[in-house]
Specification:
This protein folds into two domains: 3-180, Rossmann fold; 184-343, N-(1-d-carboxylethyl)-l-norvaline Dehydrogenase, domain 2 (Orthogonal Bundle), CATH 1.10.1040.10. It contains 13 helices and twelve strands. It has helices spanning 15-26, 38-46, 84-94, 113-120, 161-170, 182-203, 207-211, 214-233, 247-252, 256-272, 279-285, 296-305, 311-324; strands at 7-11, 30-34, 49-53, 58-60, 64-65, 75-80, 98-106, 125-130, 133-138, 141-146, 150-153, 176-178. The strands form two sheets. The chain has an eight-stranded mixed sheet, with helices on both faces. Strands 4-3-10-9 form a four-stranded mixed sheet. Helix 6 (182-203) crosses helix 13 (311-324). The longest helix is centred in the middle third of the chain and has 22 residues, at 182-203.
Length: 344
């Protein structure tokens, strides 16, 4: 079997899913896409997806459907690119479209593989870390905003020929590699999102503004501390994030020098990505739920199960849930909660 023999279904026509489907189709792959709304689905089928940015400019028509019922043939690979909140419902609908030898791939930021395995079954789920950035400018106009790579792996077995073929196929979008420790890679991305994405949703600031505040940097560090302790208790082998940030080393030195280095590194991140706006914040502003249950909420659950103190991650998740419920505003004043007093 060759990678070009694979058939793909992409669920989710947002920035990541739409670009993935368009570039797979452009490179000759058999691919269809599920878009949530009928008007958007028709636009993709009839006018195409306009992709721009670091991957070049392309307009590609992709067979698109507003629901699973439109897809007629079973697929080798289902790439699940919805928000984590929508994963379970759409995955249940899509399982009948998966070939008996096929796999469903989670492209979410958080760790959703356990949930997918419960739906699709053992041996039928893979995880994917998407290391490149993208944004939807408007329906059908998607921009790849930064380069990066894909990392693919099974949560319950070693990589096989099919996984290598999937990696070869999606390498037409960005460089792709396979790993035997996908959980470690996804957990590392989860940790950085639990700091940057979630704290941005709590306060409503751009990243640069947020990380100029010393108290926020202290909270940022504590989120990582709790996450590292949780990983150790759960036997999660954390990978170095983006090949540069080793979270264990980051929190290892308890002294003044170590603390100074941590704050300098965070300030550099804040300056480099100073105009970054949290994706969870954008969801909240649109009246949609954030993905905190798969970020800080995941750390809080896994840590609590093992007796780890995860007070800060739980507090961040709780505040975001209260914002979703309309019980508190998005505001930097949320960091004045008593649970954060020790970080002044």
């Amino acid at each position: 079997m060759k990678s070009t023999d694979l058939s793909f279904l992409v669920i989710g026509a947002g920035a990541i899913g739409g670009i993935t489907a368009a570039l797979l189709k452009k490179n000759g792959y058999d691919v269809e896409i599920i878009a949530k709304y009928e008007d958007y689905s028709s636009l993709i089928s009839e006018q195409g997806i306009c992709v721009s940015g670091v991957c070049g400019s392309h307009t590609v028509r992709v067979p698109s459907w507003p629901g699973i019922s439109g897809v007629r043939n079973r697929k080798d690979v289902i790439l699940h690119a919805t928000k984590a909140n929508d994963l379970a419902a759409s995955a249940r609908e899509a399982v009948p479209l998966l070939k008996s030898t096929g796999i469903m791939v989670s492209m979410q930021n958080g760790i959703c593989e356990e949930e997918l395995i419960a739906i699709a079954g053992k041996g039928r789920v893979a995880g994917c870390v998407t290391g490149w950035g993208a944004t939807m400018e408007e329906w059908g106009k998607l921009a790849m905003t930064s380069g990066g790579d894909f990392i693919l792996g099974y949560p319950d077995r070693d990589p096989d020929e099919l996984l290598h073929l999937v990696a070869e196929a999606i390498s037409c979008i960005a460089p792709a590699r396979v790993t035997g420790n996908i959980l470690g890679h996804k957990y590392s991305k989860l940790v950085i999102n639990s700091c940057i994405t979630s704290l941005g949703a709590v306060c409503g600031l751009f990243l640069g503004e947020m990380l100029r505040i010393r108290k926020v940097r202290n909270i940022f560090i504590e989120i990582i501390r709790e996450a590292v302790a949780t990983a150790e208790k759960n036997n999660i082998r954390m990978e170095i994030f983006a090949g540069r940030l080793d979270f264990r080393k980051f929190v290892a030195d308890p002294g003044f020098t170590g603390d100074l280095k941590r704050h300098i590194m965070i300030r550099i991140i804040g300056f480099r990505y100073r105009r970054l706006k949290s994706s969870s914040l954008q969801s909240l502003e649109r009246g949609k739920p954030a993905e905190t249950d798969w970020l800080n909420g995941y750390i809080a659950r896994k840590g609590s199960e093992q007796g780890v103190d995860v007070t800060v991650n739980k507090a961040v998740a709780d505040i975001i849930h209260e914002i979703e419920a309309g019980k508190r505003p998005i505001s930097v004043l949320n960091f004045d909660e008593y649970v954060f007093d020790r970080f002044d």
